Amino acid sequence: MSVDENRTVVERLIRCINDRKIQVMDELFHEDAVMDWPQSGERVVGGDNRRAIYGAFPALPTITPMRITASGDLVVAEASLDYGGPVYLTVFVFEMREGKIAREIAYWTEPFKPPDWRAGWVEHAHT
Prior knowledge:
Elements: H1 3-18, H2 25-28, E1 29-37, E2 42-45, H3 47-56, E3 62-71, E4 74-82, E5 87-97, E6 100-109
Parallel strand pairs: 1-6
Antiparallel strand pairs: 1-2, 3-4, 4-5, 5-6
């Protein structure tokens, strides 16, 4: 698949989560896809587990992409995830195979106030 087609798959994933149409995920992920969440140490293997988790989600976030970059079979998306309270900054790394997601790794963190001691050497990207 082309880089543009791989990028489109990730854009569709973001839309389906934002639209709360998680059944569309079955069109975007391979049935044997793996999702890794390093912060919690969890790994979701296969479509049955992915469907069960997304079906049980207490509240899906609204995803606001900031940048999506694609090269070959790798797509990286930087985004914010708004859960109606906490907002997380997130980096998703997607490995594609034959036009579908074969692996997803998601890193997220809550923003924090920078320490005053660095103020003289930094610019503030987010206010």
